[in-house]
Every structure is written in structure tokens, then in C-alpha cells.
Amino acid sequence: MKKPFKVSLIILVVVAIAISLAPSRQDSLTKVVNRFNAKYMEKAPYDAIIVPGYPYESKSYPELFTTRLFFAKELYESGVAHNIIFSGAAVHTPYTEGKVMKIFSEAMGIPAEHTFVESEALHSWQNVKYGKKLAKKLGFKKIAVATDPYQLSYLRLLAPGMPILSFQPDTPSMRHYIQPLPEVDVSPAFVKDFIPLNER
Question: What is d(CA 6, CA 113) in angstroms, rounded to the nearest whole number?
Fold first, then answer.
């Protein structure tokens, strides 16, 4: 078994355990989101938020790509965050997640000078680790993660103490962030001769 795949397998096991420990019912997840937002929204503004990537053109739960983008836009426009770091390599599809999210964010009206790309992370914990590393390099000190409630449910266990912001898991809240994406050229984020993580 190749080393990268071993690491991925370990991560998947950890995530599975984390999910099993996370709230199983929507109302419980709602309470977790409320608790985190109550604690960390009041500490805004943040120098930057880290937005974990999601596979572009994913066949499973593709709406999470969109919701993370529009939630990040809302946090930027409301002044909760002054900058956004999109984090993620090309993991499951041939598009570098951080790069393709930045491309869309600029088309959505977020100034390019306030968005940055971390393109090495292969999973959620690395999104936080490498995102924080880039933030420090850029001179940002006050950092939070902004994601969907489902990732929050286990990321809070993988990165204890990290400020995490999320929208609610209920359908009306989700629908608010599922909007049509603008037409963009995603070719700069395309990785030629891409090999999915589970085959490396």
C-alpha cells in the first residue's frame, strides 16, 4: 500500500470516528452550529477565514461546493472577514479546489486582492493546518474557518479550539446558499494527467 493512500485511509478512519461521535440528529447539529456561531461570531471581524475546498463537479453532494462559496461571500460582505483563503488541492476531481473556488469568488464580486489560494491540502485537517500556515505568511493573525454544518460537526473534533463558523443545516438555510454560479473559465484550475487520491 502506497504511503499517501495509507495516510488517506487513516484520515478516513479518523473522520468516520469523528462523525460517529458527532450529533446524529439535525436538531442536535443545529445546537452545535448555534453554540459555535454564538461564541465566534461575536469575536469578528477576522483577518481571514479559511474555506475548505470541495471537489468541483463532484457527483456526491455537489451543492456543498456552492454553499461554501456563497457563505464565504456573505461573511466577507458583512465584514465578518476581511480576507478569504480557499484551501484544497485536486483530490477527487481534476480541479484544484482552492484555485477553482477563487475563480468563482472573483466572478461573484469578491475582490481578487482579498482572496488567496492554498493548493496543497488533501483533507479537512490539512485545510486548517495549511490554511493557517498561509495566513501567518500573509501576516493575518485572527483566523477562523468557514464551512457547512456537516463539516463543522467533525472538524470541531479534528481541530479543537479552532474558531469555526457555519450556516444552519435546515433546508431553508441551505437553500439560501444554493444559488446559480456565474459562468467562468475554470481551465486555470484544471490539472492535466490528474490521478485521484485513492489511486496514488
Answer: 37
pLDDT tens digits, residue range 14-29?
Answer: 444 444 444 445 668 8
Query: E strands of the chain, at which residues?
Result: 48-52, 84-87, 115-118, 143-147, 164-166
* pLDDT > 70 fraction of the chain, expressed in percent and rounded: 86
Give yes or no for a cis peptide into 45 (omega within 30° of 0). yes
Beta bridge partners of 81: 46
Is the per-residue pLDDT at 183 higher than 50?
yes
- Using alpha carbons, list the distances in angstroms from residue 137 to 40, 92, 117, 134, 177: 23, 27, 12, 5, 31
Look-up of cell digits 504511503: 3
Residues 6+ apart with CB under 8 A from 146: 49, 50, 51, 68, 71, 72, 75, 81, 84, 164, 165, 166
Q: What does the alpha-carbon distance between residue 181 and residue 187 come to, in Å, rounded to a whole number?
A: 16
Residue 2 has pLDDT above 90, yes or no: no
Mean pLDDT, the chain, integer: 89
Query: Rounded to an integer, what distance in angstroms lies between the CA atom of residue 12 and that of residue 145?
Result: 20
Q: How far apart are CA 18 and CA 108, in angstroms?
A: 34
46: β partners = 81
Residue with cell 461573511: 75
pTM (2 d.p.)? 0.86
